């Protein structure tokens, strides 16, 4: 059983399109995150949710909208995709915010052409 | 907010030698310091972590040290092997915010 799973693994799309990435965790964790990893491998937090509620929204364009239907799921919807959105997006979860191990999904490589 | 600096950005060592990666953090309230290893095309995975009430922790060939006064912590890998080649990330958190990651160190172990 995969602890944190996200789909799709690869996503190639044209500029201006809208796309979604789904994430699910079966660890019973209260906190879920979206991280963005750019071509230089920097891992930057985008959003943090605790028990379905948004806790942190870093300086991310409002074209990015996370949705958490329940505490096991955190999806990421991106509107009007731009070339600069190309990156690997990682979903992660942890028992609580910040001071415990974060478990990562396998990542979604988004390529905007 | 927390800021984590990591050095070096790249590191090459001969197989069997030791590797040391260093990180500094800015928020004195940070109390959890994990290290993640990311192999090519894979997800980051925890390899070792340390909390602020401990100065050093070891797990086989891997050790982490923490100096709270100086606000820095280090990862030590002894007897390096080719399979240790990966990108390593340090991170820190005061516990009420997500982990903040350093910019990563690409370690290459040359056989």
Task: Summarize the structure in words.
The complex is a heterodimer of chains A (113) and B (111). Chain A is 0% helix and 56% strand. Chain A has no helices and 11 strands. In chain A, the strands form 2 sheets. In chain A, strands 2, 4, 5, 6, 9, 10 and 11 form a 7-stranded mixed β-sheet that branches. The mean pLDDT of chain A is 93. Helices cover 0% and strands 55% of the residues of chain B. In chain B, the strands form 2 sheets. In chain B, strands 2, 4, 5, 9, 10 and 11 form a 6-stranded mixed β-sheet that branches. In chain B, a hairpin with a 6-residue loop joins strand 4 and strand 5 (45-51). Chain B is globular, with a radius of gyration of 13 Å. The relative contact order of chain B is 0.35. The A-B interface holds A 33, 40-45, 48, 56, 90, 96-102, 104-107 and B 31-32, 34, 38, 42-46, 49, 51, 87, 89, 93-101, 103-104, 106.
What class, by secondary structure content of chain B?
A: mainly beta
Fraction of residues in β-strands of chain B: over 45%
Shape of chain B: globular
Overall number of strands of chain A: 11
Note the main attributes of this structure:
heterodimer; A: 113 residues; mainly beta; four-stranded antiparallel sheet; 56% strand; B: 111 residues; six-stranded mixed sheet; five-stranded antiparallel sheet; 0% helix
Strand and helix layout:
The complex is a heterodimer of chains A (113) and B (111).
Chain A: E1 4-7, E2 10-13, E3 19-25, E4 31-37, E5 43-50, E6 53-57, E7 64-70, E8 73-78, E9 87-94, E10 103-104, E11 108-112
Parallel strand pairs in A: 2-11
Antiparallel strand pairs in A: 1-3, 3-8, 4-5, 4-9, 5-6, 7-8, 9-10, 9-11
Chain B: E1 4-7, E2 10-14, E3 19-25, E4 32-38, E5 45-51, E6 56-59, E7 62-67, E8 72-77, E9 86-92, E10 100-101, E11 105-110
Parallel strand pairs in B: 2-11
Antiparallel strand pairs in B: 1-3, 3-8, 4-5, 4-9, 6-7, 7-8, 9-10, 9-11
